[in-house]
Amino acid sequence: MAQEFRLPDLGEGLTEAELVSWAVEVGQSIELNQVIGEVETAKALVELPSPYPGVVEELLVVPGATVPVGTPIIRIATDAATGEPPARTPVLVGYGPEAAAESKRARRRPATAPETAYPDGRRPDASPAARLAARERGIDLAVVAGTGPSGAVTRNDVESHTGSAEPSVPSERSDDSETVQRETRTPIRGVRKQTAAAMVRSAFTAPHVTEFVTVDVTRSVELLGRLRDLPEFEGLSVTPLSLVAKAMIVALRANPSLNASWDEENQEIVTKHYVNLGIAAATPRGLMVPNIKEAQSLSLLELCRAITELTATARSGRADPVQLTGGTVSITNVGVFGVDAGTPILNPGEAAILCLGSVDKRPWVHEDELAVRWVTTLSVSFDHRVVDGEQGSRFLSSVAAMLHDPASLLAHL
Amino acid sequence: MVDKIAYPVQLIQPDGLRVFRPDYTSLVRDIRPDQLRDLYEDLVVARRMDVEAVALQRQGELGLWAPLLGQEAAQVGSARALRPDDYAFISYREHAVAYCRGVDPGVMTRMWRGCAHSAWDPSSVNVTNPAIVVGSQGLHATGYAMGAHLDGAEIATIAYFGDGATSQGDLAEALGFSMSFNAPVVFFCQNNQFAISEPVHLQSPVPIAQRAAGYGMPALRVDGNDVLAVLAVTRQATQRAREGSGPTFIEAITYRMGPHTTSDDPTRYRAAAETEIWKARDPIDRMRRLLDREGLLGEEFLARVQATADAVAARLRSGTVEAPDPAPLDLFDHVYSTDHPLIDEEREQYAAYLAGFAGIEEALS
């Protein structure tokens, strides 16, 4: 018998919640109170335990969707059947309720080849994920060598099988499937969806201006080299980014309008007297901009440590909501990809974003002679509603001056 | 017992080693291997029940739940120090106290499910129902204790409250009255370090127990994650109360490892590193290490404890999901202990209002 679990009111009087992720998949056997997924409400991120033991029949909500309280979110086939056909009741661990699941897939993918009958009358042992992967790739499970428990076929087995088998059977695939493979359709959800919404909102509400400056940072590069040798900095990533962050925080003191936000609702400009410094990071889940709280009070050493930790947690996908909200100004480091410069889009709600290009040896006029120097290009995008060209330019040239001669930073420490 | 309140009483270290404290060890001399095992079972059952109730809230079966995770020893140790005729006044997190007093786990969640005003008859088990009001427990316990004193009953009452409640006027009044009237009360403060999101150091610059000194009340601090130490100091305090020596203030230092309630997100106001420190002081782990060191831990015993805990959790679950919805007119019961003309009038009005829907249902069907 199938039970639907409806999204409960997880706080007191909440009306909706966002399904962040599923911890189970269709066909999986679950126990009572086993965590089936994570839900974020206006109050907290909480894990949902299953109210029923059984087998997951269908996930009714895609991750990233916000649904009202009371919406059925998962359907679970339970053993508590009364009038169920006996064929479905003996559900083995690791096997989905076959009849239901296959009829559903058949509707979605009519072109998929039917499963072969096996000589000994039984299907090879395989996890539900492996079965799904095999079906999607049109692979007969019988020809895949299983490495799981008792020779069961795992998803990895199917995937590695695909890799080796594809070149050998190129002509077997129909034209139809080739056209299908020339394009991949990915549902827009999760981080991608949020990033897109944030970028559109930012680009079309804040009028952006971007300015550039190219600067000789040889002294900064030398300074970083010496800092790396200090025992205090051992194990930390001492990079141009950390020095740029420090210079930026100092430059913001004289140019506070870049550390501000436009409050449309109240018709006010909110100038922040603290710096929550966002660092754009490419993570497996997509673009994240976790921020370092109260960065204005951190020494260079503390800043290095904070950046090292922040990017590590963001990359491991463990950045918590606190780290991802409340930023006041951001840095993006496109230089790590070997790119000269960029025109970044503002993190929504902020008035400025600094972009650091790659730091390279380039020919440069130094003391009236052509010399090989470490040079980089900095750019800053700012919200022209809040920041005028004058302040934006002063800020950028001030950051550049401090990187050109980091000794001048000492005056502000 | 007032002098060194800065040093909490401890009888078991986090690594399970016993601490040499003859003065307090003598209070728990009767706790032999079997009783130690029983205390361990209580701790495990308390946590298991709590886990089940949190799950039930996440499944939409309870409106709210205040998890006790981390505070098992403070509750079990103090509740097991009580005699059947002692009376406990609890706040909203004392599920383990209720369990130890003999409350049926099957009815424990009724108030949280919103299907009863009162989950159990307080006087059948001498423990009150969960009360969300912060600090009122002190006044109720003091009043009850004063009444018992006048009746000549040799009992103790115990008021359960948290660190945040010590900033409430109610508790200040209770401490003052209980001292003036020499009431047989134990003020049992579970300092779980947070008043919802407010850390305890913002509540008081001195140890909470020191606040009792202003009333002239003896006070002490105890390691609230050490079930044996909590049992010892609560026995001492209840004994003082029964003998007519007046109230005692106990600050049990513990840690709320979960959220304030199921509506709360503790990651917004405290660091994971802090929680890690307290995990090492887990009350159940500590007791298990002690049993292990003293050769009292067998697989059979552990399996039996787990089976008991699972059975209690199952009882809590079935009692919750099968709890009948109350009839609308039950709302008027138990407001007064006897009939009351105003209540009768309101009941009739409400009955007439409900009867008005009967015609509508027929018309729709």
UniProtKB/TrEMBL annotation, chain A:
<dbReference type="Pfam" id="PF00198">
    <property type="entry name" value="2-oxoacid_dh"/>
</dbReference>
<protein>
    <recommendedName>
        <fullName>Dihydrolipoamide acetyltransferase component of pyruvate dehydrogenase complex</fullName>
        <ecNumber>2.3.1.-</ecNumber>
    </recommendedName>
</protein>
<feature type="domain" description="Lipoyl-binding">
    <location>
        <begin position="2"/>
        <end position="77"/>
    </location>
</feature>
<dbReference type="InterPro" id="IPR023213">
    <property type="entry name" value="CAT-like_dom_sf"/>
</dbReference>
<dbReference type="GO" id="GO:0005737">
    <property type="term" value="C:cytoplasm"/>
</dbReference>
<feature type="region of interest" description="Disordered">
    <location>
        <begin position="145"/>
        <end position="188"/>
    </location>
</feature>
<dbReference type="InterPro" id="IPR000089">
    <property type="entry name" value="Biotin_lipoyl"/>
</dbReference>
<feature type="compositionally biased region" description="Basic and acidic residues">
    <location>
        <begin position="172"/>
        <end position="186"/>
    </location>
</feature>
<dbReference type="InterPro" id="IPR004167">
    <property type="entry name" value="PSBD"/>
</dbReference>
<keyword id="KW-0808">Transferase</keyword>
<dbReference type="InterPro" id="IPR011053">
    <property type="entry name" value="Single_hybrid_motif"/>
</dbReference>
<dbReference type="InterPro" id="IPR050743">
    <property type="entry name" value="2-oxoacid_DH_E2_comp"/>
</dbReference>
<feature type="region of interest" description="Disordered">
    <location>
        <begin position="83"/>
        <end position="131"/>
    </location>
</feature>
<dbReference type="InterPro" id="IPR001078">
    <property type="entry name" value="2-oxoacid_DH_actylTfrase"/>
</dbReference>
<keyword id="KW-0450">Lipoyl</keyword>
<feature type="domain" description="Peripheral subunit-binding (PSBD)">
    <location>
        <begin position="125"/>
        <end position="162"/>
    </location>
</feature>
<dbReference type="GO" id="GO:0031405">
    <property type="term" value="F:lipoic acid binding"/>
</dbReference>
<comment type="similarity">
    <text>Belongs to the 2-oxoacid dehydrogenase family.</text>
</comment>
<dbReference type="Pfam" id="PF00364">
    <property type="entry name" value="Biotin_lipoyl"/>
</dbReference>
<keyword id="KW-0012">Acyltransferase</keyword>
<dbReference type="Pfam" id="PF02817">
    <property type="entry name" value="E3_binding"/>
</dbReference>
<dbReference type="GO" id="GO:0016407">
    <property type="term" value="F:acetyltransferase activity"/>
</dbReference>
TrEMBL record, chain B:
<dbReference type="GO" id="GO:0003863">
    <property type="term" value="F:branched-chain 2-oxo acid dehydrogenase activity"/>
</dbReference>
<protein>
    <submittedName>
        <fullName>Branched-chain alpha-keto acid dehydrogenase E1 alpha subunit</fullName>
        <ecNumber>1.2.4.4</ecNumber>
    </submittedName>
</protein>
<keyword id="KW-0786">Thiamine pyrophosphate</keyword>
<keyword id="KW-0560">Oxidoreductase</keyword>
<dbReference type="InterPro" id="IPR050771">
    <property type="entry name" value="Alpha-ketoacid_DH_E1_comp"/>
</dbReference>
<feature type="domain" description="Dehydrogenase E1 component">
    <location>
        <begin position="44"/>
        <end position="310"/>
    </location>
</feature>
<dbReference type="GO" id="GO:0009083">
    <property type="term" value="P:branched-chain amino acid catabolic process"/>
</dbReference>
<dbReference type="GO" id="GO:0000287">
    <property type="term" value="F:magnesium ion binding"/>
</dbReference>
<dbReference type="Pfam" id="PF00676">
    <property type="entry name" value="E1_dh"/>
</dbReference>
<dbReference type="InterPro" id="IPR001017">
    <property type="entry name" value="DH_E1"/>
</dbReference>
<dbReference type="InterPro" id="IPR017596">
    <property type="entry name" value="PdhA/BkdA"/>
</dbReference>
<dbReference type="InterPro" id="IPR029061">
    <property type="entry name" value="THDP-binding"/>
</dbReference>
